[in-house]
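Quick entry between incubations.
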Amino acid sequence: MIISVASGKGGTGKTTVATNLCYSLGANVQILDCDVEEPNCHLFLNPEIQASKSFFTPVPQIDEDKCTYCKKCAEICRFKAIAVFGDTILTFPELCHSCGGCVLICPENAVTETGRLLGVVEKGSFDNINFVHGRLRVGEAMAPPLIKKVRSYAASDKINIIDAPPGTSCPVIAAVKEVDFVLMVTEPTPFGLHDLKLAVEAVKLIGIPCGLVINRSDIGNDDVRQYATQKQLPVLMEIPYDRSIAEIYSKGLLIAREIPEWKEKFNELYKKIERLVG
Amino acid sequence: MKELVILSGKGGTGKTSVTAAFASLAKNMVLCDADVDAADLHLIMAPEIRKTTDFFGGGIAVIDNDKCSECGQCIELCRFEAIKEGFIVDEIACEGCGVCVDFCPEQAIDFPTQKCGQWYLSDTRFGPMVHAKLGIAEENSGKLVTLVKNEAKKLAKEEKKDLVITDGPPGIGCPVIASFGNVDAALIITEPTVSGLHDMERVADLAAHFKVTGMVCVNKYDLNMEQTKQIENLTKKKNMYFLGKIPFDSAFTASMVQGKTFFEYNGDSKAKNEVRQIWNKIIALPVMNMK
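Done. Structure below.
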């Protein structure tokens, strides 16, 4: 089972839901923090990191002794990552999408590949729960390749909970593609609803069942609930705005540990998801 | 002319609400919404669209099955696993690199440019606004961010405005990197939580990487005084300006529900003074020099 926790709008409580769900299940579960730009799950779970691995993406390297400045590599590159002026060739590794076209096209075999550091994937555990997260290198633009690395740690015999990044573009797709269920966390405000609609459309596009968690459920207005009814999106849990919950979060603590009734509620949430996935 | 970008690292700290509040305080500015994949500023600004333009990203592979000899070269060369069984292109997986197009021995693969969003030039009650909508699940968000920012600058020049206020995206990846282009200063809005602090540090390091002047303000500071103190300390350590602390104020949500900026909202509010003072500090900064 793979469940992605996503949202559209940032700051609605994805990490709260992902970490508390994971903690409440307690066994046979692992968390994969795919919000590699701003990973936060470790701040709440305090895992002991046992392994750290750097990941690189291939980028071109030119052997100028072999290069005849024919420009074929620069012409084939759709991302403007190679430029040739007279007998000068420049590569812009940060623009490269690692397609390998330049290596294939070079008639002189002058293009080989070296690596650009994407970031690190760290693996650890706390209690009996496995923990994996990716940390994108500050200055690196492309999150999806590192998200795919984090996802490669998913275990088929476990419940895998993915904390997805906010938004609706390629990093989110990388974190929700081919999962069993998407749990959308939203808040009942105009911004929350607007971004929820976009995220629901994105998930529909790739055909994955989804359900809602409404966080700070007593602020704002009723439009999110009306939208859920209209789109037949099941509301699986509501978390009211409560200053004590906000304070627990601010300190990096888990509500399911501090307020035991929440542990039961998160277990119920999982049972509802299990029934929906079938 | 100056450009201020508003960022946060962590989502949901109040970037858009504060941007809207600044828009009602600033004089002679152009607004720019650079959070192109989950844009929200228009929900408060109610822009009247003057001009809509299609945004074209890169190409995407399309296989002509009549010409295809099913040799499998494209499947072998594609590093994005975008060509599925039956020689069908998975448009979401396709990176738009064109390798399959260039190396198909039958020249059976076409590479049409894709419309992947729209951008708008609009008027609001506070001044002109440039904003955009990226198509669902599209790539090229960085490219669209650069486009809206450039258009906002162009408009500011034409209409003799002296400031562009850009509402930025969350995170530190491609669209955020694009939003740093040619800005004079970045305001990081954070919140006093372990995640607010952690995420602010990463976006602050990114600002330093691009040599952009960083400023910090804490929203909902009274939620956790200890974390607020740590944010203040980190701001100093990173050589950024600490501009102030905004108390938790339900007027932010209440004004959003009404489609109003924080300063247009009539109800009680304890944060108005602080937000005004933060704005005054921004325009008085040497790098902005707008007083």
